[in-house]
Amino acid sequence: VQLQASGGGLVQAGGSLRLSCTASGRIHSLNGMGWYRQAPGKQREMVATISKDNVTDYASSVKGRFTISRDNPETAVHLQMSTLKPEDTAVYYCNAGRVIYWQDNYLTGGFDVWGQGTLVTVSS
Question: How many whole angstroms separate alpha carbon 52 and alpha carbon 84?
């Protein structure tokens, strides 16, 4: 099982970017998906999450500017980022919770999976 993130890049303050993350592999089910970020010298923090029931949660610093959504089938998640600020500069990681997948003819897993990260740089 892998998560492939894309969409990062360099943008001026006030601009927009859309991040996408797709899960691949013989996935049976997964719980919520989300986006986290880690700025240089800082700990990784939650940006936005979306549950299996499409309940969303946002960090207070991005509420009203970022929107998280999932595709159907629910193995892809997107993050629409608007009104970007220099403090949004970070490596953004996507996450899939409690991924259960097929290995041979058996179900296994039940743990979180992380993508490789995509860099977002917002210039002032």
Answer: 27
